[in-house]
Design goal:
There is one protein chain. By secondary structure, the chain is of the alpha/beta class. It has 4 helices and 8 strands; from the N terminus they run βαβαββαβαβββ. Strand 3 and strand 4 form a beta hairpin. The protein is globular and about 45 Å long.
Amino acid sequence: MTERETLTWDDFGRAGRDLAQQVADDGYRPDLILAIARGGLLPAGAVSYALDVKNLHLVNVEFYTGVDERLDLPVMLPPVPQTVDLSGATVLIVDDVADTGATLKLVRDYCEGHVAEARCAVIYEKPQSIVQCEYVWSRTDKWINFPWSSQPPVTPA
């Protein structure tokens, strides 16, 4: 069994506030927050409230198919954000974890050339990530149990 790190709901509350505080302390003022679904939805919501940024966009990227199981490359799923909606904005890209960093790289590359600036914030960053995020709550090399995804899905009886 792979050693795991567990994020509790209380830890998540602290992580969201701490990430927002890092952004504020850095003087970065995002015009919009771009959440990477699904894992980045809750962290992006927490950060957006803490920073009082109401302009929240979503990009849905599929990469992980199970514990340590992933597609060869991450894929953006429709609807893809329109670049005109991002044009000239300062963007904070938020996800739950930078594991390989491939998902964050895909989204950051998509923003490049359209936004004034894009920075990344994650709850966890792993050493092998190809993207070094500007804002990180914790670094780990373990598989992470997130409170929103550690239980099996609820299915009809």
